[in-house]
Prior knowledge:
The complex is a heterodimer. Chain A has 15 helices and 14 strands. Chain A has helices at 50-68, 70-84, 94-100, 119-133, 146-158, 168-173, 175-183, 198-212, 229-252, 267-273, 302-305, 343-351, 361-375, 381-393, 415-422, and strands spanning 39-40, 43-44, 90-92, 104-109, 137-142, 161-167, 187-191, 216-218, 258-262, 283-291, 307-311, 314-318, 354-360, 402-407. In chain A, α2 (70-84) packs across α4 (119-133), α5 (146-158) runs parallel beside α7 and α9 packs across α10 (267-273). Chain B has eleven helices and nine strands. In chain B, α7 (152-161) links the parallel β6 (145-146) and β7 (166-169). Chain B starts with 9 loop residues before the first strand and ends with a helix.
Amino acid sequence: MATVPRTTNAKVPTLSSTKNVDLRMGHPRGSSMHNLPGRFGVYGGRYVPETLMAALDELEREYEKATRDKKFQVKLDELLRTYAGRPTPLTFAGRLTRKLGGAKIYLKREDLLHTGAHKINNCLGQALLVERMGKHRVIAETGAGQHGVATATVCALFGFECVVYMGTEDMRRQELNVFRMRLLGAEVRGVDSGSKTLKDAINEAMRDWVTNVRTTHYLLGSVLGAHPYPTMVRDFHRVIGREARAQILKAEGKLPAAVIACVGGGSNAIGAFYEFIKDKKVRLIGVEAGGRGYTLGEHAARFRGGSPGVLQGTYSYVLQDGAGQIATTHSVSAGLDYPSIGPEHASLRDSGRAEYVPASDAEALEATTLLARTEGIIPALESAHAVAEVMKRAPKMKKSDVVIVNISGRGDKDIGILRENLKID
Amino acid sequence: MPLTFYKKPALVVYVTCGDPDLVTTREIILAAIEAGADVIELGVPFSDPVADGPVIQRASERALKGGACLSQVLTLAAEVRQHSQSAGLIVFSYLNPILRLGVEKFCKVARHAGVDGVLLTDLPVEEASEYLEAMRANDLAPIFLAAPTSPDARLKKIAEASQGFVYVVSRTGVTGARQNLADDAKQLVRRLRRVTKLPIAVGFGISTPEQFAETGKFADAVVVGSAIVETIERNRGREAEAVAEFVGKFCSRQLQKA
């Protein structure tokens, strides 16, 4: 019998070695399910315990109905406008542009939304669905705490009971957001298993859901998990790219050469990318967490060290060892600290339509300082990864080129970590 | 075929392989069979067991710390098979370790090891056609879970895809002992009987001989999992002996009734 060794120092599977991985598994060949709307190429699908299948079917039906219901869209648009603060501006970053000396840089300001990040787009959309389904209890996971805060916020707004699962390591890193959630009336439950971060919070939220599925909606915060989540969450964030595309055409009279966004699960990135996918000349660049090195466990760059696998409901790139055990990850940014990536990103990468690059902890910290001091904007550490990429890329581009960087959230929540790391007191 | 349930209710015993180590797991399994277990579920430890409660989570962590992995579980299955021809052997796993090894390769090796069936917690029937082909080609029984939340139309699909038996999840929730068993299980077994002639095993939350007897009135087999794993956890150094005593309580009760 062939054995697969499992040691903590197992050889990291590289992308080239994944060519031998049996990609066929996970997309039923020749069956009627081959064209499941929940598949992006071979990725995606619905890999959950049987107990959850009926709830996912219900959610999918309700979501489909809602997308055909004009009243739903009107209600959501109004909430986005009057409550969340849409549209968000597209800010020309003049001093940053001059400093880098290349392409013209524009910032899509999701950091200016209520609750401080793009996450509220999805939370408002799902809250309206919860109301339609007649459920009253909402659970969520959170990494950086931004999704948890946005969930606690909509639960307060709609009058839902709210429980947020958060890794205890993340609770320590994002103390301020823990307090915000509690202030908003949510119960924050610390998760002490595994790496005590986002992945473990999702595990615990799934266990809650499997237990209370009849009364509870799982308000998943990224383009992850089982179908319909990756599609539904993407659709709720498409507004980012829709606005940005119209805004850049108005400001510059042309499309950008590139759109850059950070990618944890990938919700802000897919939201920023989606309206540009058809514009073949626009380069779509996702930035993963390069952490502190390229050994497995030291980063969250799924496309550098990962291979296809199933984690938490979906088939996508996963950081794992030779025996299929999920690897631990590291990033200075809790929101990017996750071993898998949204399945649509896996498909965009395989097709070559989008490219994905890493930025290290140190680069993200440097980018935070630079954006703060050139533009007076303190980005979330997640978004700082996208800024780090534009710092590398803009100087090599033509001055006539235009680049959009999605500033997915603001950095107030990171003040503690920034103080620890930047030593500028 | 070892998956036939000769007595009613048959006792299915779950163990997390590699907790505390693989040698001990083999002793535990052989002791459980000796004490009257009819089918053994060989739990493959996984880093992210979303369907499991705290007891099996802890066991998985311990097993992974010791370096246990799927291919070792298959080696263990072969060793158990050498010692016992009669017991049913089922691999109980999450999907990702199987994918990593390769579905076809896994099925071939499992068959060769003398495994009878496979249950994958996070593989619903809709996503299983590739897996089903490989399972059938290797004469392995695919066992699927039916949940209280599964509508009748899904139960039909689940029953059609299953071989050997259908595994009924007694209630919504993760694995782990419960004081009271919901009526969910009984109703679900009734609904399932309408669409299948396959035997039905009921699991999740059954930890006492009383619950075993109660469930055995309407199920063909009863699965005891977390209670076994907890017995192993609490009896460091005498795991096999403790499991044999524990299993004996279930089986002697059955004898008394007879």
